[in-house]
Amino acid sequence: MKRLIRIWADLGVQSKLSAIALLALLGMLIPICLHTAQLRAATQIDRTELVGLPPLQALLDAIGELHAYRATAATDPAARERVGGAIAAVAQRIEGLAQFERSRAALEEFSRTWDRLAAATDVRGAATDAAAEAALGALDAM
Questions:
Q1: Long-range contact set of residues 94-97: C-beta below 8 Å, sequence gap at least 24
Q2: Is the pLDDT of residue 125 over 70?
Q3: How far apart are CA 106 and CA 117, in angstroms?
Q4: CA distance 92 to 115
Q5: Can you tell me the mean pLDDT for 49-69?
Q6: Among 79, 81, 86, which residue's Cα sits nearest to residue 63?
Q7: 100 Cβ partners below 8 Å, 6+ apart?
Q8: What confidence tens digit (pLDDT) does each residue in 111-124 have?
Q9: Quick check: 74 and 121 in contact, CB under 8 A?
Q10: Sign of the alpha-carbon torsion through 92, 140, 107, 60
Q11: Are 114 and 132 in contact (CB under 8 A)?
Q12: pTM of the full predicted structure?
């Protein structure tokens, strides 16, 4: 121990300050590494959320088309096809994305409900409530 104290005493001021700076750097390195790992995990979560935005936007568009159909079914004959196309666009967006299994099942239920209602001759007003419920279920699943 006395030997280390003597070596320290024989060092110049510049060497002592350099040694102190290195020790301070080592002391800061552990929290920096831990914080960097935490930031990496948060960034991965953000990337996962970003993957879900386009399908969510497509589903919101499909729900908007459904409500537009409910409002204009009597005057706009093409509204029925727009709803079907919007549902197909959502299905295409989530195709191949593994984390959307629950959403895919809810979307298939929405699509089946819509297909049943679209096959009917007069689908307006309260008759579309089942499709709206299925659409909101798909939104919850997403």
A1: 94/55, 97/51, 97/55
A2: no
A3: 17
A4: 17
A5: 83
A6: 86
A7: 52, 55, 94, 142
A8: 888 888 777 756 55
A9: no
A10: negative
A11: no
A12: 0.61
d(CA 93, CA 24): 51
142/139 Cα distance (integer angstroms): 5
- Six-digit token pair at 91? 């299905």
Q: How many residues does the chain have?
A: 142
Give the model confidence (pLDDT) of 74-99 as tens digits.
Answer: 677 777 788 888 888 888 888 877 77
* C-alpha to C-alpha distance for 45 and 130, rounded to whole angstroms: 34
- Retrieve residue 140's tokens: 């919850």
Q: What is the 3-state secondary structure (H, E, C) of 19-37?
A: HHHHHHHHHHHHHHHHHHH
